């Protein structure tokens, strides 16, 4: 099979505090419906083929059990993972603070400066609907957090199906951006084996 015919596989993991809407986001993306009830997740794996820049990617999306500051980082959520979706609820300041905690754990585990990541502010439909909790985190704060961590950022509502597809498109874009950057590593910073060819490694 020629290399161009080999399907490109990408693994994306969805992390964040409990009850921020991780499962609802993934289920809306994969199955196009909203689940109103709350069923805490243990772990669910979904598959979907996505097109990015005219190329098809077979994506595996891993929906995880919610984390807190005491959760021990699970190596399963870093080894073989290409991209991260870190979710907070715009109606929960605590869940917003957890994003940096989780991001730092990933960086620490991977031993890199940054990873392909989309930070997602969920439940934007709650902002004006009293008496349910309303917005505690402003868009500007989400944007700033993303900039500080070289991540993409978007606000969503799984309930209203707002920006749900965009989350996973942005994640693929972050993954591919970095793999293209790897291909463009200048020869001076590559090993002798790759110097002559002027390329480094790439994600297949
Ligand atoms: N209003 C509103 N509620 C939402 C939205 N997304 C999720 N919810 C609700 O929030 C609750 C938790 O949603 P889940 O998707 O189960 O959250 P989770 O992050 O997967 O939770 P864990 O499995 O415990 O980590 C459920 O009652 C959902 O119906 C949203 O966009 N808007």
TrEMBL record:
It is a lipid-anchor. It comes from the Eukaryota. InterPro entries: P-loop_NTPase, Small_GTP-bd, Small_GTPase, Small_GTPase_Ras-type. SUPFAM superfamilies: P-loop containing nucleoside triphosphate hydrolases. It is found in: Cell membrane. Pfam families: Ras. Belongs to the small GTPase superfamily. Rheb family. PANTHER family: RAS, DI-RAS, AND RHEB FAMILY MEMBERS OF SMALL GTPASE SUPERFAMILY. This is GTP-binding protein rhb1. It comes from Psilocybe cubensis.
């Amino acid at each position: 099979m020629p290399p161009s015919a080999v399907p490109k596989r990408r693994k994306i993991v969805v992390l964040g505090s409990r009850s921020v809407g991780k499962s609802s986001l993934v289920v809306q993306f994969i199955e196009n419906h909203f689940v109103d009830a709350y069923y805490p997740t243990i772990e669910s794996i979904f598959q979907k083929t996505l097109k990015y820049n005219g190329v098809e990617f077979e994506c595996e999306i891993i929906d995880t059990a919610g984390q807190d500051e005491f959760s021990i980082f699970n190596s399963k959520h870093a080894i073989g993972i290409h991209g991260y979706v870190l979710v907070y609820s715009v109606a929960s300041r605590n869940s917003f603070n957890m994003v940096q905690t989780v991001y730092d754990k990933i960086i620490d585990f991977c031993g890199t400066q940054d990873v392909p990541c989309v930070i997602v502010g969920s439940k934007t439909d709650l902002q004006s609907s009293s008496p349910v909790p309303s917005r505690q985190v402003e868009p500007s704060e989400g944007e700033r957090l993303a900039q500080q961590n070289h991540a993409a950022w978007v606000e969503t509502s799984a309930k209203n199906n707002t920006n749900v597809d965009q989350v996973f498109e942005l994640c693929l874009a972050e993954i591919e951006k970095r793999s293209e950057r790897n291909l463009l590593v200048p020869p001076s910073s590559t090993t002798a084996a790759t110097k002559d060819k002027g390329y480094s490694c790439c994600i297949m």
